[in-house]
Amino acid sequence: MHSTDLAAFLHSPYWEEFLRANGQSVERSGDALYLQGTLPSGGSYWRSSRLPIDDSWSPPPFTKNAWFIRLEPLAELPASLSKFGRVRATDSVQPKQTLVVDLSRTEEEVLAGMKSKHRYNIRLAERHGVTVELFHEEAPQHYDRFWKLLTETATRHTFRTHKEEYYRHMVATLAPHGKAHLAFARIGDQDLAALLLITHEETATYLHGASTDARKEVMAPFLLHWQTMQWAKHHGFVSYDMWGTNAVQTEEGWAPRANHPSAGTTRFKLGFGGEVIQYPGAFDLVLKPIPYTLYYSIRRIIRRQSSF
Fold it and tell me: Shortest CA distance to 210 belongs to which of 144, 148, 263?
C-alpha cells in the first residue's frame, strides 16, 4: 500500500467544486489543489495536503504574495525546498496517521484480518436485527439524518465540527457525481450510527462518523462499517481508508496512544485490521520571514492564553 494511492480525492475536480461551493478560494498547480487562507493581520497563505513534493517542486506563481505555504506532503520534504525559504514544522490539518483495510482480498480474508471481538460484534449486531442503508446519488435527501447524529456525537464527546453548511455542501456537491455516500445503521426506524464515505479512484474513505448513545449493546457501528466495506469491495474499490488514527507500535503490534482523547476511536479502527500509514506532518514554507515571525509570535501568545 502506497500513500500516493490514498487521499487523492483532496485534489480531484469534484473536491475543488465542493470547496468553491463552500466559499473557499482555491487554485490548481498541475494535479495539486491549493486553498487560500487569510490571517487576522490582513496577510494570506496557501495550503495543500497529501501532495507529492520532490526536487522539481517550486512555489506556484499565485503564492508570490503569500506569507507562507502550508504543506502536508506524502513523504519527507526534500532538502532542496530550503532554497525557497525557511521550513518550519507546524500543526497538521489532515491526520498524520491512518489505517487502511485492503479490500482486494476476499471477504473471508478481510474478516480474518479483524480482531476476533470485532467479528463477534458484527455477528451480534446481525442477531439484534441491525440493518444498514446506503445512499449514493440520493444522499442529499438524507443529509439531515446524518447531521442530527453528528451534532449529538460532537456534544457527547465535546469535539468541534465544521459548520453545518460545510457538510451539506460536501454531500450536495459530491453525491450527484457518485463521490459522496451516506450509510446508516438502524433498528426499526431509529438511526443508531452513520458515516460519510468519499470515493475516488480505487479508494473509499471513511471521512466522518456519528452515533447515538442509545442501544449501544447492539454494536451497530461494527456492522455499519463491515457492510460499507462489502459495498465498496463489490464496486471495485481496493482500499478502505479509516482517515485518522493515533496509534503507537508496541511489542504486540499497533495500539492506541495511552491517555489520548481519541484512544477509543483508534482502538475501534485498529480492530478492523489493515495497515497503518504514517505521514510526515505539516510544514510552513516561509516566503516572507518578517510578517511570518510576527504572525507566529502572536499565534503562540493566543494559544498560551487559551490554554488557561
Answer: 148
